[in-house]
Design a protein that fits this description.
single chain, 490 residues, alpha/beta, five-stranded mixed beta sheet, 50% helix, 7% strand
Length: 490
């Protein structure tokens, strides 16, 4: 979103840089996943998982297809001859046995998560009155529905614990399989591991096929793909191409072009070249004016980052020249900057890096950054401080702003009234709360120059006064927008 187009005259007024002193935005205590060792744990779990599926495809699937006639056992140097006619290297069986330990660890983790869910949901039920002024009007089922969704959205906070427990359980079993002598393992355990590994391989294949028909599963795979392909190939040479290596420079070039001086003569030079080559008799001045309309220039730009767009926007702003970064305002919604990237990759998105990003955007006293925070969002969260306090909504500073989801509590329950939908990580832009937050950024910006105000014009109030007449929304467009917002909460 860009507002405040350059005029054709001189560019006397320039963007005012926000203060960039040594102060930083106040930040809540920070705890990285797995104590900062998520990378080693994830690598260990990836090795165990790869071994499990390799063993499942090579041993368990043939056994499922051939039947009991396919008998194979672990080969171990220095041991006695096994009863099975076919012997294969013992690591295949160690990984299959590790699947049993990983499944048991996962079951225990799920039990712990279920107990934690009940405790957290009860706590949120008691706090809803501080978040919604009309919470008492809603029935118990409606309040349980909201508290349940808000609690489930916290499941990603157990990512570090889950990865660590599964990695330790699987890797320890692989080591124990060799240390204890593979041929001393019970035959029933090896048979059970073979069947479980085969079922896991078939289940993974079925999940992949079902993703073509199930949107939620496609979204899950898409999220993992987005995170995996965000980092350059230097981090993993076998990874797919990194899309940020292309999208970030393209957006940087786009912003540099939009923020370039309006009287740099580029349109005039292009018009003269086109006229000389293609139309000698054409009016070069009129053509230059038309070309200038095709490449508008602005003094301020409001950048929107949704979900994965938040770290992309942060990477783009960090690469902009300081003069260009001073002309950028930022709104992030569903942002995983702190919750996932900060806790998973603290060296790149930790509190220090976020504080530097806030300083680039005018922090801490006139920061040009707003982050919409939903308690129901299972991916995005706050960046610096949580606006959802223990006693209700709190002032978390200038960046993080609470966006309630659902936006209201209606009297009664689902049997007598249509309950407002809970959108979670989707439908941010139709949300009237986000519309108000965006409008406030366009109208006020950082407290210095307004993002919606032309650089060569006197200060004016209101967004629509800064938009050219031809671009003002019609009455029909306003009514359509109003109906869309009304449907959002129904």
């Amino acid at each position: 979103m860009a507002r405040g187009r350059h005029g054709t005259g001189s560019r006397d007024a320039k963007p005012t840089a926000g203060p960039t002193g040594t102060g930083q935005l106040a930040s809540a205590p920070f705890r990285p996943f797995a104590g900062g060792f998520l990378g080693p744990f994830a690598l260990c779990l990836a090795c165990v998982t790869g071994g499990i599926f390799a063993a499942g495809v090579n041993l368990a699937v043939p056994r499922l297809l051939i039947g009991s006639g396919f008998k194979v056992g672990p080969g171990w140097t220095g041991g006695q001859a096994a009863a099975e006619p076919i012997q294969v290297p013992w690591p295949l069986f160690s990984f299959m046995t590790a699947l049993v330990a990983v499944a048991a660890a996962l079951l225990l983790t799920l039990c712990y998560a279920a107990v934690l869910y009940l405790i957290k949901r009860a706590a949120i039920m008691r706090l809803l009155g501080g978040y919604y002024a009309d919470a008492a009007l809603g029935g118990k089922a409606q309040r349980q529905r909201i508290a349940g969704q808000w609690t489930l959205s916290r499941a990603v906070d157990l990512l570090g614990l889950t990865v660590g427990v599964l990695a330790v359980a699987g890797f320890a079993t692989v080591i124990a399989f060799y240390a204890v002598n593979p041929q001393s393992f019970p035959a029933w355990l090896i048979s059970f591991a073979q069947a479980l590994a085969g079922a896991a391989a078939i289940a993974l294949y079925g999940f992949t096929l079902s993703a073509f028909r199930n949107r939620s599963r496609r979204t899950m795979i898409q999220f993992l793909w987005d995170v995996g392909t965000y980092w350059p190939r230097a981090c993993q040479p076998f990874a797919p191409p990194c899309y940020v290596e292309r999208s970030a420079p393209e957006l940087v070039n786009r912003l540099n072009g939009l923020l370039a001086p309006a009287n740099d003569g580029a349109a005039t030079r292009l018009a003269a070249d086109l006229a000389a080559r293609l139309g000698p008799g054409i009016d070069e001045k009129a053509l230059a004016g038309e070309l200038g309309e095709l490449t508008p220039r602005y003094h301020r730009i409001l950048l929107n980052g949704y979900s994965q767009g938040s770290p992309i926007a942060a990477a783009v702003i960090a690469q902009l020249p300081r003069a260009q970064a001073n002309a950028i305002s930022l709104i992030t919604v569903g942002s995983p900057l702190r919750r996932l990237y900060g806790r998973g990759f603290p060296a790149y998105s930790g509190p220090d890096r976020l504080a530097e990003m806030g300083a680039l955007l005018g922090g801490p006293t006139a920061v040009r950054w707003r982050n919409a925070v939903r308690k129901s969002d299972y991916i995005g969260d706050y960046v610096f401080r949580d606006p959802y306090g223990k006693a209700g909504l709190e002032d978390a500073g200038p960046v993080d702003k609470a966006v309630l989801d659902p936006p209201c509590v209606v009297p009664g329950d689902g049997d007598s009234v249509t309950l407002p939908p809970i959108h979670g990580h989707s439908d941010f832009w139709p949300d009237p709360q986000v519309a108000v937050l965006t409008r406030s950024m366009v109208r006020t910006g950082d407290g210095h120059e307004r993002p919606g105000q032309p650089a060569d014009a006197a200060p004016v109030q209101g967004l629509e006064q800064n938009v050219p007449e031809a671009r003002r929304p019609s009455m029909r467009e306003r009514l359509t927008r109003l109906i869309s917002m009304n449907n959002y909460v129904r």
